[in-house]
Amino acid sequence: MSTVVSTASRSRVSARIRWLILVIWIGVLCAMSTSIFTFTNTWMFVGEVLHWLFPAGTSESNQVLIHLIARKGAHFGAYAIFFMVLMYGPLRARPYWALLVCLALATADETHQMFLPDRTASPYDVAIDMTGALFARFLYLASAQV
Predict the structure, then answer these.
(1) 31 band by pLDDT with thresholds 50, 70 and 90
(2) What are 103-127's pLDDT values in tens digits?
(3) Integer Cα distance of 15 and 117 in angstroms
(4) Is-contact 106 113, C-beta < 8 A?
(5) Which residue, 16, 35, 96, 128, could crosslink 75 as a Cys pair with Cβ 3.0–4.6 Å?
(6) What is the pLDDT of residues 43-85, one digit of tens each?
(7) 7-32 burial, b for 16+ CB within 10 Å, e for fewer?
C-alpha cells in the first residue's frame, strides 16, 4: 500500500514540476518579447561576445549580420525548447496540439511587439519560431525511434 501511495505522490510532484517548467518557459518567452530584448539591448551582449571571439575585430556589416543570426537563432531555439517542454509536460502524446500552442504563442508574441515603440513585429519571426518547433518535433520523433 505504501508503495502505491509513494508512486502516486511522486507522480503528482513530477506533474507539478512539469507545469512549473512550462510556466517558467512561457515567462522567458514573454520576457523576450519586451523592450528589454531590443536589437540595441541585445547588441550589448552579442557585441561583447564578438569582441571576445574576434579581438582583431570584424567589419560592422559582419557584426550586424552575426547579431541578426544570433537573434533569429534565439527565436528558433526558444520555440524548439518550448515544443519539447510541452511534449514532455502537459501535452505529452499530443504533438499537433503542442505545435498549435507554439503557433498561438508565437503569434501573440509578435502581436504584442506591434504595440511596443522600440520593437517590430514580423510574420517571418513567427515562421522562424514554428521552424524551431517543427525541428523539435523531428527530434522528438527521432528520439522515439532510438
Answers:
(1) very high
(2) 999 999 999 999 999 999 999 999 9
(3) 39
(4) no
(5) 128
(6) 888 888 888 888 777 788 888 898 999 999 999 999 999 999 9
(7) eeeeeeeeeeebeeebeebeeebeee
Nearest 5°: phi and psi at 77?
A: -65, -40
pTM comes to 0.88
Q: Which three cell numbers stand for residue 37?
A: 530584448
- CA angle, corner 129, sides to 53 and 123, nearest 5? 110
Query: What cell does 99 get?
Result: 505545435
| Long-range contacts (CB closer than 8 Å, 24 or more residues apart) made by 122-128 | 125/72, 125/75, 128/72, 128/75, 128/76, 128/79
